[in-house]
Design the sequence.
């Protein structure tokens, strides 16, 4: 079962605001944030101009938020260089997605922002 429409709209509002406000205005031609919702997963990306073609933007994964609709909770995952996803063990799953976004934003272990 995918994220319901109410939850999806809430996620879009939260992440639209986060992506818009995270990058200072004077850097938006060099970096931007975006996200993608697929099923119960919401993946946060960092985008930068490609070094060979500045008109083409490349995406790098930052984090993934996974929703459990049965319990209505979110968990954070980080992606290793091998391409495999791992649950972020330093944060318990949470009903409140904002809490998990803040954990990714602070990135105390350097797993999300490098």
Sequence:
């Amino acid at each position: 079962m995918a994220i319901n429409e109410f939850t999806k709209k809430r996620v879009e509002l939260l992440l639209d605001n986060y992506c818009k406000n995270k990058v200072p205005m004077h850097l938006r031609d060099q970096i931007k944030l975006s996200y993608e919702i697929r099923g119960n997963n919401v993946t946060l990306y960092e985008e930068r101009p490609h070094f060979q073609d500045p008109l083409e933007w490349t995406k790098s994964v930052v984090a993934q938020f996974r929703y459990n609709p049965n319990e209505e909770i979110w968990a954070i995952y980080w992606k290793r260089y091998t391409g495999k996803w791992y649950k972020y063990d330093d944060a318990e799953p949470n009903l409140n997605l904002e809490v998990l976004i803040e954990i990714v934003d602070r990135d105390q272990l350097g797993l999300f922002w490098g």
User: Anything to note?
Assistant: The chain has one domain: 5-106. Strands lie at 32-38, 41-49, 57-68, 73-79, 85-87. The longest helix spans residues 5-22.
